Task: structure prediction
Amino acid sequence: MVPESYYVGLSAILFTIGVVGVVIRRNPLVMFMSIELMLNAANLALVAFGRRVGNADGQAVVFFVMAVAAAEVAVGLAIIVAIFRLRRRLSVDDLSLMRW
Amino acid sequence: MAHAAFFVVAAIAVVAALGLVLRRNAIHGALFLVVNLGAIAVLYQTLGAEFLAWAQVIVYAGAIMVLFVFAIMVLIPGKEETGPDPRRAWRLLALPAGALLFLQLIFVVRGARGGAGSGAPSVGGGVESIAGLLFTRYLFPFELTSVLLLAAMVGVLLLARRRV
Result:
């Protein structure tokens, strides 16, 4: 049986890749997908820890994370579509209106 | 045997994640993300979480990624991220910062002790055990989830409406 620490290590690698992706990419859609990557890495760690502790609570939490991620993706993509209609461009560097 | 399988699937997941981050074309990135989500579903299966493995395939690789691919096709007519990056130096700082974050994560995880040990009492990951939890201990969050999804749906309709 593969120890849980391997899964958690893989989860850390995937999470880091997701963070770097959010920072280095300019396309909001790719940034969004990197956020999904981070959510999945966290889910993997939750399931691995759940097996280590020996109950299914971690898996129930992952279920909720999936539901929230679905809602988040729908709303986020709608916002991106609305911004694209307004600006005709799709780069996060243009969106500095709400930045101090 | 199990170790070899784990490392093969883990390598697929990492390569797909790197492909998502490094490829210029967003649609290639989306397809790489599908591969990554499938690999994670396989890992759920090896962890004994059958229900989550299938939910991952249906919800993530199915529904969410279809939404992404639609959005990419609607929004990006041709090339994206063209032209020189005005903040290239700042963005390259992400690599050392990411390495630092990774070391931190490993440090935190290694420092964590405890749990019931790796005796791993066989925790059922099937529909039965998850449903048992969702309808007893997590009943209230479960109901809240439905409200959240409804709110998201209404919000999306409002946002995507064409102003007349």
